[in-house]
């Protein structure tokens, strides 16, 4: 227990995080690349055609991981915001700031790929149903976070303001997730019930591999971006002189 | 997938499937480019802060 606490205590130290994050990031990048290539091969070639949706269902191999990551990243941001506000940890603010553009990108991909799937299946690119609308609101929350975070001359003020938005905005995450259960929506219900799924195993495994690949991709980029964000917030500290060589 | 032709056309869904994957790939690569740009801009900013602090001291 003491070893775990010591590990996290050291990880929260910006110079230690800066040093550790580079090799971790590289490892995550390679794992992500392998998983995404395997997932693409499985999803686009090996998985059988759906008897109702034909090959159109293959859009889910990019849509579902993106949509899932859009929720996951916002929860990471909200948790980081909480840690930042309560313990005033600069690293937590850096992680939240690093996550926001990535989460916005995942949400945009989820919205656009969902529309591309909706046109042949529903006959329209967009409907104002609960799932689509709450996901669009999530996208605006990401944009709001990014804007607020960069709107103040003093970075600490921007971090705190954006953190409050992340905490309040986190209410949208369960709304997005449960919208298909709470309301009658055109969007199909969840294919996952706990650890079980209604999807055939031959179609499911590439989806799970893609989801894992997206997770490692996010892990890689959030570490990379957090390194920059922490450097910016610690610019007045001595250790950054050695790092940037000035 | 039964043939390369089916793979390319995705049955009749190619016009929807390929743009979806194309957008996904573009966004992932663009995110990498943005992270690189951010790193470069932050390093420049931090060096400027250090430079200014050295000038103030001397």
Distinctive features:
heterodimer, A: 246 residues, two-stranded antiparallel ribbon, 9 helices, 2 strands, 2% strand, globular, B: 58 residues, 2 helices, 86% helix
Q: What fraction, in percent, of the residue positions of chain A are helical?
A: over 70%
Mean pLDDT of chain B: 93
The string of secondary-structure elements of chain B, in order, is: HH
What's the helical proportion of residues of chain B?
Answer: over 70%
Residue windows where pLDDT falls under 50 for at least 5 positions of chain B: none
Return Rg of chain B in Å. 23 Å
Structural class of chain A: mainly alpha
How do the SSEs of chain A run, as a string of H and E? HHHHHHHEEHH
Low-pLDDT runs of 5+ residues of chain A are none
Number of strands of chain B: 0
Biggest beta sheet summary of chain A: 2 strands, antiparallel
Most extensive contact: A-B, 40 and 32 residues
Described by the principal axes of the CA atoms, the overall outline of chain B is rod-shaped
Amino- and carboxy-terminal Cα gap of chain B: 71 Å
Give a short account of the largest sheet of chain B. Answer: none
Strand content of chain B: under 5%
């Amino acid at each position: 227990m003491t070893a775990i606490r010591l590990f996290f205590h050291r990880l929260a130290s910006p110079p230690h995080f800066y040093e550790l994050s580079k090799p971790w990031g590289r490892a995550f990048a390679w794992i992500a690349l392998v998983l995404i290539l395997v997932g693409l091969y499985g999803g686009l070639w090996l998985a059988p055609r759906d008897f109702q949706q034909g090959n159109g269902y293959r859009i889910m191999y990019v849509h579902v991981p993106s949509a899932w990551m859009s929720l996951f990243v916002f929860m990471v941001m909200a948790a980081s915001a909480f840690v930042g506000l309560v313990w005033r940890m600069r690293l937590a603010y850096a992680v939240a700031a690093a996550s926001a553009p990535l989460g916005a990108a995942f949400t945009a991909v989820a919205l656009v790929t969902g529309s591309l799937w909706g046109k042949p299946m529903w006959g329209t690119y967009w409907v104002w149903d609960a799932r689509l609308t709450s996901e669009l609101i999530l996208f605006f929350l990401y944009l709001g976070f990014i804007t607020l975070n960069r709107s103040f001359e003093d970075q600490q003020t921007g971090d705190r303001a954006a953190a409050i938005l992340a905490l309040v905005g986190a209410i949208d995450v369960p709304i997005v997730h449960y919208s298909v259960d709470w309301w009658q929506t055109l969007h199909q219900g969840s294919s996952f019930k706990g650890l079980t799924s209604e999807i055939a195993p031959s179609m499911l495994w590439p989806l799970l591999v893609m989801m894992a690949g997206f997770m490692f991709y996010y892990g890689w980029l959030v570490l990379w971006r957090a390194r920059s964000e922490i450097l910016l917030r610690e610019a007045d500290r001595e250790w950054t002189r050695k790092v940037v060589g000035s | 997938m039964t043939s390369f032709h089916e793979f390319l056309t995705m049955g009749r869904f190619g016009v929807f499937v390929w743009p979806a994957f194309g957008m996904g790939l573009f966004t992932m690569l663009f995110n990498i480019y943005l992270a690189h740009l951010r790193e470069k801009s932050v390093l420049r900013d931090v060096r400027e802060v250090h430079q200014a602090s050295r000038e103030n001291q001397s």
